[in-house]
């Protein structure tokens, strides 16, 4: 949990909404935390966790940059109330030099677990795998810094959109649809992936 950072639930201009799941609990390694029954939002760059309603209002949230994620695992847990369910284990890399304050300054665990009352939605898990593998941030990080800490170098390019509800509305307008499903969000992600491929190809030629 010491890789998580405090942030406002807003996206940078080069960041896209991908998927959302509810009733999510965070673990610091194998240890339970007080961060439970919240909403988990996946973007092209980060995971955002917030209390119910906070993310929609553009309020306070916890942020984990996807560049920390080195590998995935799954484990099966059982509960007398909710039966068997799967938890997602994210194994994380070392703390980055530009990390901002978060809920924990120190942790012996190099991984976090994501769980829900009925497990994590399979669609969300698949979206997470594909987004991490796409590594969109590897391209866009050259254009801007950590989305949770705006810089003063080029403020005109740091346009922020408030709240996930606002983000979803922008996606609807952009694609002229009313469906706020995961498949719609992946259209934006697909464009970013194509952009990444083009930039990689150009860099090889140069």
TrEMBL record:
Domain (GLUE N-terminal) ranges: 1-144
Gene Ontology annotations of biological process type: protein transport to vacuole involved in ubiquitin-dependent protein catabolic process via the multivesicular body sorting pathway
Key words of the record: Cytoplasm, Endosome, Protein transport, Transport
TM spans (from-to): none
GO terms, molecular function: phosphatidylinositol-3-phosphate binding; ubiquitin binding
SUPFAM superfamilies xrefs: PH domain-like
UniProt-annotated location(s): Cytoplasm; Endosome
InterPro entries, sorted: GLUE_dom, PH-like_dom_sf, Snf8/Vps36, Vps36
CC terms in the record's Gene Ontology section: ESCRT II complex; late endosome membrane
PROSITE patterns: GLUE
Primary location class: cytoplasm
Signal peptide from the UniProt entry: none
Family membership: Belongs to the VPS36 family.
Oligomeric and partner information: Component of the endosomal sorting complex required for transport II (ESCRT-II).
Described purpose of this protein according to its UniProt entry: Component of the ESCRT-II complex (endosomal sorting complex required for transport II), which is required for multivesicular body (MVB) formation and sorting of endosomal cargo proteins into MVBs.
Record's protein name: Vacuolar protein-sorting-associated protein 36
Biological source species: Aedes aegypti (Yellowfever mosquito)
């Amino acid at each position: 949990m010491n890789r998580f950072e405090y942030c406002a639930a807003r996206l940078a201009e080069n960041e896209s909404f991908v998927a959302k799941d509810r009733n999510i609990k965070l673990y610091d390694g194998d240890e339970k935390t007080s961060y439970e029954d919240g909403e988990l939002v996946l973007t092209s760059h980060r995971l955002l966790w917030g209390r119910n309603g906070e993310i929609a209002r553009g309020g306070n949230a916890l942020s984990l940059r996807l560049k920390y994620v080195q590998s995935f695992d799954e484990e099966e847990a059982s509960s007398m109330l909710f039966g068997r369910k799967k938890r997602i284990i994210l194994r994380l890399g070392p703390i980055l030099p530009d990390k901002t304050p978060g809920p924990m300054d120190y942790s012996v665990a190099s991984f976090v677990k994501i769980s829900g009352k009925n497990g994590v939605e399979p669609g969300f898990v698949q979206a997470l795998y594909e987004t991490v593998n796409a590594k969109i941030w590897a391209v866009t990080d050259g254009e801007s810094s950590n989305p949770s800490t705006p810089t003063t170098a080029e403020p005109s390019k740091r346009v922020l959109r408030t709240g996930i509800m606002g983000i979803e509305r922008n996606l609807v307008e952009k694609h002229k649809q009313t469906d706020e499903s995961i498949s719609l969000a992946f259209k934006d992600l697909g464009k970013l992936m194509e952009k990444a491929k083009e930039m990689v190809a150009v860099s090889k030629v140069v």
